[in-house]
Structures are given as structure tokens and as C-alpha cells.
Design a protein that fits this description.
Order of helices and strands: HEEEEEEEHEEHEHHH
Distance between the termini: 123 Å
Largest sheet: 6 strands, mixed
Membrane topology: Single-pass membrane protein
Strand order of the largest sheet: 1-2-3-5-7-8
Main location: membrane
CATH class of the domain at 21-179: Alpha Beta
Helix content: 25-40%
Number of strands: 10
CATH superfamily of the domain at 21-179: Ribonuclease Inhibitor
Protein name: Leucine-rich repeat-containing protein 3
Pfam families: LRR_8, LRRNT
Family: Belongs to the LRRC3 family.
């Protein structure tokens, strides 16, 4: 009985991941997991954590609902990892309260815009091998980016060679619009599709008319009387 009473007295989420250090910062719980050779986000992070440092590890992916149970979370530092993939619902459950998200210094080439545009947090996205496309452009326009790091968002790859190696902000200021390129591509694809359907309809109509004409000719030949029968009738 005393054991169960002890369990009830222990607050949920008070444990600390074995590879991390849990401490207090300005009266709020901080979980420090920097440089711990982590390859994924720990699953046993305390529920009442406010500051979470996961920088300088070997994390490669942020899966959906990775922080959903951490409702008090305000700051996440994931800089200096090997992150290549971020799921669209990676920050579901913490979007409203998150104030700072650091994803700088990873291997991120692209990211689902829904993963970031729902956030109110200030984002740091610098020093990643970004592919400059419409999704990244929309993030730059609509998300809250850290102004000090915007210049370090550089085009590692781009639709045009002249943009490679240049800061995305500089490319956009020069008049580039990656979203209009995608729109033109979609328009061309739509035109090709419609032309294909139109060509199929034309071919079908031509074949249908030709088939009916051949049937009419064969039917007329069957109705035409034979020469011998016509002579006997005379």
C-alpha cells in the first residue's frame, strides 16, 4: 500500500533521459542533450520541459508527433545534427506555444511547408543545403524567420545554375519567383493533358464515322440484286 501511495505522489514526466541532463533555467525545466551521440529524439523527455537542447548530435529525422506530449515546450535547439527529413506533422501539438526553433547546420534540402507555417516560433534555418524552390520561398515569405540568420539561407541547388551558391534573399530580391515557375510547369502539364484527351476524342470520332461508313457500304452491297436473278426476272 505504501508503494502505491509513493507512485501516486511522484509527478508524471519527472524522469530524465539517461543520456541527458535535466536542470532548472529561470524556474523552468530544461533538458540538455547536447553532444550525446543521439541518432533519434529521446522518447522519455519529461512532459513539463520548457527548454530542450538536442544540438550537436546525429539525429537524421524528425518524425510526426515527435514533441506532441511536451505541451509546455517553448524552445527547441536541433542545430548541428544530420537532419535530412522533417515530416509534415513533426511539430504538431507544440506549434502554439513554441517560441524558438533552431534547425541550422543540418542536411535539410526541403521541408513540407505545413510543418513550419503553422508555427509561431522564430525559425533559424541557416547553413543547410537548401533546394531553392516554391516551398522554401513560401516559408521565407510567411514564416517568422530569425532576421540575423536569413542571409545564411543559401541555394545549394536551384532551377537555374546562376542561383546556386547565392543567398535565397538575394535571388528573390533580383526578381526570381520559384512559385511562378511551378505554376507555368503545371499550366504546361495541364495543356498537354487536355491536348491528349482532345486528340483521343478526334481519333475516336474519325474511327466511328469510318466504321459506320464501311457498315453502310456492306449493307448496300447485300441489298443489291444479283445480275442472274435480275435477268430471270426480266
Amino acid at each position: 500500500q505504501a508503494f502505491f501511495c509513493l507512485l501516486l505522489c511522484i509527478p508524471w514526466g519527472s524522469s530524465c533521459p539517461p543520456s541527458c541532463q535535466c536542470t532548472e533555467r529561470a524556474g523552468a525545466k530544461a533538458v540538455l542533450c547536447s553532444s550525446r551521440h543521439l541518432e533519434e529524439i529521446p522518447r522519455d523527455i519529461p512532459r513539463d520541459v520548457v527548454f530542450l537542447k538536442l544540438d550537436a548530435n546525429s539525429i537524421t529525422r524528425i518524425p510526426s508527433n515527435a514533441f506532441r506530449h511536451l505541451s509546455h515546450l517553448e524552445e527547441i535547439d536541433l542545430s548541428g545534427n544530420a537532419i535530412e527529413k522533417i515530416d509534415g506533422a513533426a511539430f504538431k501539438g507544440v506549434a502554439a506555444g513554441l517560441r524558438t526553433l533552431d534547425l541550422s547546420g543540418n542536411r535539410i534540402r526541403s521541408i513540407p511547408k505545413e510543418a513550419l507555417l503553422a508555427l509561431n516560433a522564430k525559425l533559424r534555418l541557416a547553413n543547410n543545403p537548401w533546394h531553392c524552390g516554391c516551398a522554401l520561398q513560401e516559408v521565407l515569405w510567411e514564416a517568422r524567420l530569425d532576421l540575423d540568420s536569413v542571409q545564411d539561407i543559401t541555394c545549394h541547388t536551384a532551377p537555374r545554375e546562376e542561383y546556386v551558391g547565392k543567398p535565397l534573399l538575394q535571388v528573390l530580391d533580383a526578381g526570381a519567383n520559384f512559385c511562378s515557375v511551378r505554376q507555368r510547369t503545371m499550366d504546361v502539364a495541364m495543356f498537354v493533358t487536355m491536348f491528349g484527351w482532345f486528340a483521343m476524342v478526334i481519333v475516336y470520332v474519325v474511327c466511328y464515322v469510318r466504321h459506320n461508313r464501311e457498315d453502310s457500304c456492306r449493307h448496300g452491297e447485300r441489298l443489291r440484286p444479283l445480275p442472274g436473278a435480275q435477268a430471270r426476272a426480266d
